[in-house]
Design goal:
The chain has 457 residues and is an alpha/beta fold. It contains 19 helices and twelve strands. It has a three-stranded parallel sheet with strand order 1-2-3. A three-stranded antiparallel sheet has the order 4-5-8. It starts with a strand and ends with a helix. It binds glutamic acid. It is found in: Cytoplasm.
């Protein structure tokens, strides 16, 4: 059987690094098991779901290196949910309820005051046909609840009914179906809540492993019961811990905070985001993995802790910088070309400057400096004279990485300057910067003619 996983975001906002964690746990699981990855948009909430968000999510995933084998939308699949509703009704496990939210709240308070668990008491199951007709005549429309299989013969006598699963992340789990209310599957207006479409799709799409955030643990018991009521064996489940900011706040799609898009716009490397999103809150040290394969090697869902994982966005920059500074030219070349950095010198240029960059895009500043010279050079009169005299000692071409040393040794011997006094004015004249890539590497890239012009300026 092909391992099949899915990432099922609702397209109601920008996905953030916490959502990326879920997507990546699934992607890496598929990668390691030669499995399939399905992107499913949970867009049954027509009010809040937007196509722009769905498109953005696909783009964000592609940027992270996630390429779904199949993409689908729940809004295209309503027929399947209707069929499932009919099946459940026919089996007598989906029943109409007419309570208003106020009535439910009143009952909940009464149960609490009697020290009873505040779960739904299945009062609607007791309604006679006549009472139902009376409600409908009043204009009330029913919502529909799934009758949990937590009783022997009498639904009003629920009994402890344990559902077990061996969670890929959390290990053996048990929930008691008698401790929860029959979930509402269909609202008064005929729209579906998340539970039924999700289970129907997981069956229809052949999902073998559901990996998602641990905010869904309590849903799992009822969902397992629903899989069975629909005649399917439930898949395996894994619930990973959630990410929070350093101050312990949860992340939200709606605020756009730490959205994948904003990280991308800040020039953070995708594998820095992926490495942090996957490795934080696990027993593995957070390190920048340069490829998805390298990250897959480190990925072990069972090593995630059970409590939420705090992360510091500043760490993203540290990881990103490490990736940029070690990035082979082959990997950077397309992006450099898009920045206008190409030609025969592009590779030596990249190898010369990468160690000084925070972001790949920052290479353009150095490309401009190498090719067009510094915008402004603040040299004292005395240093300017020194630099001019140094120009006369420039070796002839061809130049290589040793030219800088040959040249500066000659300048040192001729002028008596050494250390910072010797090097700093030359660096300033050539680059306009106090610091930067090794001049031994930059000098041949700038070339004799341009170096002379800068020294004699
Ligand atoms: N749309 C649900 C969510 O974003 C999916 C949960 C699941 O993976 O089952 O929370």
């Amino acid at each position: 059987m092909t391992i099949t996983v899915r990432f099922a975001p609702s397209p109601t906002g920008q996905i953030h690094i916490g959502n990326a964690r879920t997507a990546l746990f699934n992607w890496l699981f598929a990668l390691k098991n030669d499995g399939r990855f399905i992107l499913r948009f949970d867009d049954t909430d027509r009010e809040r779901s937007r196509k722009e968000y769905a498109d953005q999510i696909e783009e964000d995933l592609a940027w992270l290196g996630i390429r779904p084998d199949y993409v689908c939308r729940q809004s295209d699949r309503f027929d399947l949910y209707e069929q499932a509703v009919e099946k459940l009704k026919a089996a007598g496990v989906l029943y109409p309820c007419y309570e208003t939210p106020e009535e439910l709240e009143r009952r909940r308070k009464i149960r609490l005051s009697r020290r009873l668990p505040p779960i739904y008491g299945r009062e609607a199951l007791k309604l006679t046909d006549e009472q139902r007709r009376a409600y409908e005549a009043e204009g009330r429309k029913p919502h529909w609840r799934f009758l949990l299989p937590n009783f022997d013969t009498d639904p009003f006598e629920p009994q402890r009914t344990e559902v077990h699963w061996n969670d890929l992340v959390r290990g053996p789990q048990t929930v008691d179906l008698a401790s929860m209310s029959d979930p509402i599957l269909v609202r008064e207006d005929g729209t579906f809540l998340y539970t039924l479409p999700s289970v129907v799709d997981d069956i229809d799409l052949g999902i073998t492993h559901i990996i998602r955030g641990d905010d869904h643990v309590t849903n799992t018991g009822a969902q397992i019961a629903l899989f069975r009521a629909l005649g399917a064996e439930p898949p395996a489940f894994g619930h990973h811990n959630l990410l929070t900011t350093s101050t312990g706040e949860g992340l939200s799609k709606r605020t756009g905070a730490l959205s994948i898009r904003s990280l991308r716009e800040q020039g953070i490397e995708p594998m820095a985001v992926a490495s942090l999103a996957v490795l934080i809150g696990t027993s593995s040290a957070v390190e920048a993995c340069p490829t998805m394969e390298a990250l897959a090697e480190r990925f072990d869902p069972a090593s995630s802790s059970k409590s939420s994982a705090k992360f510091d966005p500043a760490e993203l920059m540290v990881l990103s910088r490490a990736l940029v500074q070690a990035m082979p030219f082959g990997e950077a070349s397309d992006r450099l070309a898009a920045l206008g950095i190409m030609g025969e010198k592009a590779e030596t240029f990249w190898l010369a400057v990468r160690g000084n960059l925070d972001r790949v895009a920052d290479a353009t500043e150095w490309w401009t400096i190498v090719n067009d010279g510094p915008a402004a050079v603040g040299l004292s009169e005395e240093d300017r004279a020194f630099v001019r005299s140094a120009a006369d000692l420039l070796p002839d071409e061809p130049w290589d990485e040793g030219t800088w040393r040959t040249w500066t040794s000659a300048v040192k011997a001729a002028t008596g300057r050494k250390g910072r006094e010797l090097f700093h004015p030359l660096r300033l004249a050539l680059t306009g910067r106090d610091s930067g890539p090794e001049l031994g590497l930059l000098l041949p890239l700038i070339g004799r003619e341009r170096v002379l012009a800068r020294l004699r300026a």
